[in-house]
Amino acid sequence: ELTIGDWRQSHPPALAADLKGLRSKGVDIFALKEDLDERGIAEGQLVDGVDVLPRSKLAGLVGGYGRVWHW
Predict the structure, then answer these.
(1) pTM of the full predicted structure?
(2) What mean pLDDT, rounded, does the chain reach?
């Protein structure tokens, strides 16, 4: 359990399910190739629908969207 001030997080996140839910709503999800490589994550380990691109393409990608969530 995680507590921050008066707020308590009692359920662990379900990141894979959350990402799949976003994809089912048409949200584009991207991962940077270099970040995956640095962390030893193979593209085959990603949930379906995550697009991998090189860091050199990030600025152009971000510029094409009105809203970007970064985490």
Answers:
(1) 0.73
(2) 90
How far CA 34 is from CA of 31, 42, 49, 68, in Å, comes to 9, 11, 18, 19
Geometric angle at alpha carbon 46, from 57 and 30, rounded to 5°? 25
pLDDT per residue over 39-61, tens digit each? 999 999 999 999 999 999 999 99
Per-residue confidence (pLDDT) for residue 71, from 0 to 100: 67
If you count DSSP H runs as helices and E runs as strands, how many of each does the chain have, helices first? Answer: 3, 4
Tell me which residue has tokens 């050199």: 56
Q: Choose among 25, 14, 9, 27: nearest CA to 66.
A: 27
**Whole-angstrom distance between the N-terminal and C-terminal Cα of the chain?**
21
Q: Which residues 6+ apart lie within 8 Å of 20 measured at CB?
A: 47, 48, 49
